[in-house]
Amino acid sequence: MAKAERAAVFDVDGTLVDTNHLHVVTWWEAFRQAGHDVPMHAVHRAVGLASTDLVAHLLGEDRDTDQDAAISAAHKALYGQYFDRLPALPEAGALLRRLHRDGWAVVLATSAGGAELSALRRAIDADEAITATASADDVEEGKPAPEPVEHALELAGVPAERAVFVGDTVWDMRAGSRAGVRCVGVLCGGIPRTDLEKAGADAVYADPAHLLSSLRDSPLA
């Protein structure tokens, strides 16, 4: 197959699969079990950060860091209960298949790995369209650092100026902007349009279905 000239890099949670609120509830419960009362709206704003960064962001630098691993493990176990029924967002798989047909290298850039990533891919059900996956296991620093997006571009063999990154959080938009790619935001993760635009989104759509129906006039045209 000819090498793709351009890359469409996708965040997964909240962008292609409707998992953000499951993450909110399971992080909230993990914090509660460890004796921390963290409001759900604060957890929601932090979703999209790598686990250790999320804990640090919500509990602060002066927390007892000895608890970090246990809190992350509790979240992982609680969230794992949903692996067999994670819901893809409308037309997520169709969007990836369409871009693949149009000659884009489709790369997933996600903080998920292992069984969680497998469950997300099953939900999307478009493996034939996915060129590569850049997971948390592959990088030193998660979003909002540019490394996950840069790694995705390396896997695609495409320079930043010929790539677009699609995500649902401010961390995604910051990571994409820092990596020098055009950023597209989606609202289905629950983050407001103005926040995504302030963080670097060139365009914002409701969800994958809206992006698919608007492809002609989008940065992915």
TrEMBL record:
This is HAD superfamily hydrolase (TIGR01509 family). Keywords: Hydrolase. The lineage of its organism: Bacteria, Bacillati, Actinomycetota, Actinomycetes, Kitasatosporales. The keyword Transmembrane does not apply. Gene3D superfamilies: HAD superfamily/HAD-like, Putative phosphatase, domain 2. NCBIfam families: HAD-SF-IA-v1 (TIGR01549), HAD-SF-IA-v3 (TIGR01509). One of its GO terms (molecular function) is hydrolase activity. The keyword Mitochondrion does not apply. InterPro entries: HAD-like_hydrolase_sf, HAD-like_sf, HAD-SF_hydro_IA, HAD_sf, PGP-like_dom2.
